[in-house]
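Lecture 7, part B: from sequences to assemblies.

Below are the input chains for today's worked example.
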Amino acid sequence: MKNRLTILYDTQSFLQRDLIKLARNPTLFGTLLVEPLVLFLVFSQVFQKLSLFLPGSSGGYLGFLTPGIVLISALVCSPQSGISLANDLNSGLLSKMLLTPADRPAILLGRLLTDVLVVTAQSTLTIVVAIALGVRIATGMPGVLLILFTVAYFELALSGIFLAVGMKTRKTETLNALSGFLFLPVIFFSSAMFPVSFLPSWAQAISNYNPVSYASAVIRELVQGGLSVGTLTTAYVAIGIISIATFAATLYQFRKVIS
Amino acid sequence: MQNIIVVKDLVVVYPDGTRAVDDITFSVEEGEFFGFLGPNGAGKSTTIKALTTLLHKASGRISVAGYDLDQSPREIRRSIGVLSQDTAVDGDLTGKENLRFQGRLEQMGGNALTKRVEELLKLVQLDNVAEKQAGRYSGGMKKRLDLASALIHKPRLLFLDEPTAGLDPQSRTAIWDYLQKLNKEEGVTIFLTTQNMEEADRLCRRISIIDGGKIIAEGSPLELKEALGGETITLSFKGDTDFLLRNKTKAILGTVQAVTNIIDSDESVIVYTKNATQVVVDVVVALGRDNVRPSFLSISSPTLDDVFLQKTGRRIRSEELSRKKIEPSILSVS
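Predicted structure of the full complex, as structure tokens:
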């Protein structure tokens, strides 16, 4: 098989394996799928009166919340690649893979593609539920596709953190703890769940540098209408910088593991 | 016959500075069943990892399946099958899916892969549980599945790192049978590491004994055992194992004719002689004359453990000695 095709074939092999594993763990898959919806329900009910303060938002607070919940999907899904790789390292399966002529980057690519599929399924479900509850996606189907692309891009950037830490520590407990540690501050010190003006000034300052704010600005503009090139460019550059940093760390750790 | 593995002056150093493999040179012929025998930490697994491209060597040259390791690691990986010491099967996947996945990583596909998977499941007698998740298999079944994975691409050369460690006797025998069949009927060259003397003795045509990262003996199991000079009489002492008693025993044994060598190991005094069944009477009489009464006495043909003992003064694993025991009361001299 020619080299340029090998990486595609191998990526497909790893993707197939990860999807079978996911199907064999319905509790994990179900939790990943349902968690954003549960948060959608909780936040939309507890804070429904916020609609009074959001007169311009289509669908009231539900419309405002939808981008935040879609981004929560990325946060929920992002540790999975790291956890999976740490498990493969500890079980000896990674060594077994490295002993084959398979393309080594395909190990990472196959796993990341699995996450992209999961996060796309989660986000699609959230958007479908939001539409069913009366939220209108102003930019239509192209907007929905761009939302899905943005959230997948964001999820990949975050995955890099967990991949690097997973390969360094080889402990899934550490990854779960790290995910829990990051989740609330990253979500609440941003514009994902509430307008930034609701935050105290010091938290607003953090929010201005929080990539979740940039990503939610893009998705919110796609939901409410009127996406500006500036918002899109700023968000994609910010996520790109995070991706470069996290994947540099991932590749550094991966090279150490495979050598 | 052509050499399929050539190792010259190999040194592997761990990050903490330990020379895990310390300047070893050996070669393995195509079609051979070759063994690396040694205790834990001797450098066996490290050697396998270096030969299979998983570990970087500090110096030396390695050629596997005709490829230089520094220049063509990928070609080497394509030519070899490896069964690691720790069983590695994916518990979420079925037996069949595990093999299909491994086959795809070996760049196989289509009907050829389907056929090979069926063939291997039959060979390792897992065809009746092929659709069950491997996580539900017993330890022996997982090991057999792991072995089948290593064979999926019909490698010319198979590396086995302690393939039967931790298995029950029945599973161990089954694995031994598969390996002998592979080597004899399909001509697969096998490089095996083990600390099980019986395994090395039964399977390997030629072995290297390794200790402290160095090869200390090399040859066929028979040659190595014959070089010890015949059979062994082992004497153990309950309680009184002090230095003086042991020295006295050795002094007495030194006077017995036909004794070719005496080794004082941690647990016993071992006498080497050409004809142990005749010499044992002289030994017991000589000891009895000075009122030295062993609590345990046994006669055996030398094992590879005796070879290791003679070279290092230590046993590989004393619990693996399988000797013909003779109670002292039967032979006691009054």
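Note for the exam: The first strand of chain B starts at residue 3 and ends at 13. Keep this in mind when comparing with the next example.
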